[in-house]
Amino acid sequence: MSRIVMIRAIHCAGVTSNGFKIRFSTQSLDEALSCTEKCKLTWLDFVISDISLGAEEVVKGLKINLEPSALFSGYLANYEDKGDVLGLMIPVVRFEERKITATPLLIYVKQNLLVTIRDEHAEYLLKLSQYAESFLKKLPTMDEEWAERQTLLLSRMIDEVNEHNFKVLGSIVERSETMEMTLRASPVREISTEMFEIRRSIVTFLNISWANHDVVHSLRYGDAEMVSDREEILAKFNLILSDLERQISLAGNMLEVLSGSVSVIQADITNKMTTLLLWLTIIGTAILVPNTLATVYGIPFLEHESYWRWIVTSLLLVTVISTIVVYLYVKRWWRKPISKISQ
Q1: 117, 89 in Cβ contact below 8 A?
Q2: Weakly modelled stretches of the chain, pLDDT under 50
Q3: Are 45 and 116 in contact (CB under 8 A)?
Q4: pLDDT for residue 71
Q5: Of the candidates 224, 209, 108, which has an alpha carbon nearest to the alpha carbon of residue 157?
Q6: For residue 158, how many C-alpha atoms fall within 13 Å in the half-sphere facing its CB?
Q7: pLDDT tens for residues 51-85?
Q8: Does the N-terminal or the C-terminal CB of the chain have fewer CB atoms within 10 Å?
Q9: Residues of the chain with CATH 3.30.460.20
Q10: pLDDT for the residue 208
């Protein structure tokens, strides 16, 4: 597949040695590489049609000695430190058709160069790209502070991903609240399916958040050469870790609330089934008792016409009395557990 087809866009941003800011978009890899030659810090954001195939093409074009397959080998996220190059894979949440999926974001960090590789679905970095010039102005300017510059930019990228993921969690919360409002009005089958989808979405979000947490923790304490070792710079990752822990806590609380809602539905179903069994017992008594007597009365020596009035009267009385007795018994001994369940 040709490079033009695979690479949809390359967003370039950088700051030159004299402080001049550069920002443009292109589809030419050679034009993007020209930006790295004149900048002391460059960010190349690659948007490709298929990240599993296009990432390898981008890495070869940039002459980075860390294959994407090494990052893809991790579950949801990965951290690879090769000394002169640092590779990260961070999962990005997508919420489509009531389901959550993870889209990988690849980040390569070399001296004075940050490369992000993503597909067309992960557009969250566009916000950061739009004000990249103003952000680059705030970075350290000394040549020996190259690690501080790219560490600050890297932390801002990861923070942008977490902000995007948190918005998706907010969408799940809204969906859960809507479901709770319609809990009594909707059929049990529809509610059960909806709750299953929400629960699966929350579990997926928790897995993604923990994967991001592991990557950020490795950045904070991994002592990579491409990351600054200054505590005030590394403190940025502490803030990101705190945000991730809050997201994990919130998602965990949602899972507990959802489990409570599931218990309510199960109790409601149990209550209905018990009530149904109660009435089936009463109806069965009303049918079986007179049916048994009618069988007895069907004996030939009871077929004389003088017995009919007595037979009919006794059948009616037995039917009414047995039904009332069973109803009172069931109401007294079965309604108590039903009430407890409904509470």
Answers
A1: no
A2: 1-5, 301, 337-343
A3: yes
A4: 93
A5: 108
A6: 31
A7: 888 898 899 989 999 999 999 998 889 999 999 99
A8: C
A9: 3-131+140-264
A10: 92
- The pLDDT tens digits of the residues spanning 36-50 come to 888 889 999 998 888
Tokens of 48: 């490709």
Strand arrangement of the beta sheet that strand 113-119 belongs to = 21-26, 7-16, 39-48, 113-119, 99-110, 86-96, 78-81
C-alpha angle 234-218-243 in degrees, rounded to nearest 5:
65
Cα→Cα distances 58→15, 30, 53, 116, 201, Å: 22, 11, 9, 10, 32
Cβ neighbours of residue 213 under 8 Å, at least 6 residues apart?
A: 241, 244, 245, 248
pTM higher than the cut 0.85? no
26, 12 Cβ separation under 8 angstroms: yes
CATH superfamily of the 3-131+140-264 domain: CorA soluble domain-like (3.30.460.20)
**With contact defined as beta carbons under 8 Å apart, do 241 and 221 qualify?**
no
Rounded CA-CA distance 337/332 in Å is 10
